[in-house]
Amino acid sequence: VMSPFLGNHDIPRFATEAAGNDLGPWGWTEDWMAGGGDDVTQWDLINKASMGLLFTMTQPGVPLLYYGDEIGLAGAGDPDNRRFMSFDPYLSANQRELRSRVEAIGQVRAGNRALRRGDRRQLHVDDDLLVYALVDGSDVAIVAMNKGWTARQAAIPVADLLTDGSAVVDRLHPERSSTVDSGSLSLSLNAWDYAILIP
Asked: Measured between alpha carbons, how far apart are the two ends of the chain, in Å?
């Protein structure tokens, strides 16, 4: 069984790469996610990291979560990427927000067999929007991500997966739902938004 990952001990930390502040392995790169105190100040890093971890945790295989990636721990190449882990109550609001998102993704994954064991089917891809399904027998999960800076709407063909009238709910944002109509699923995502849609 393969193990997809966003980070590991051989490469710079994702948060550092996304921030563009890599000072090299001996530079002790600044940890932007640790700042902000009780205010969430790093939405750009939180959005990118949570989307990257969503992708990692919804690929076939057993996802590997390198310690600290769930809080956006900084670090350039080895040995800077092996910093001490931080825990509550010493996490910033930025770190708690990212960790909360990762926990939610993990809980949805744990509760859906298709996300854990399903075969991946590509449904749509363009410069900003990626939509794919994971299918295990009759279990289906549709993962959608918009990495663009503007909201996106799209009609995604799903006739081979779901019948007309089938309702799906975004398990990360239960207030969002959609119904299959004429073989397509109407999808609406905000900028840097993502969904796990399950019947």
From this structure: 27
**Helices 93-110/43-57 angle, 10° precision:** 20
Average pLDDT over residues 136-141: 95
**Cα–Cα distances in angstroms (integers) from residue 2 to residues 5, 60, 74, in the given order:** 10, 8, 26
3-state secondary structure of 133: strand
Q: Which amino acid is at 104?
A: A
For the chain, the C-alpha Rg in angstroms (whole number) is 18
Please give the model's pTM, rounded to 2 decimal places. Answer: 0.94
pLDDT of 107-134, one tens digit each? 999 999 999 999 999 999 999 999 999 9
The two tokens of residue 66 are 């390198």
- What is the spatial distance between Cα 64 and Cα 72, in angstroms, rounded to a whole number? 15
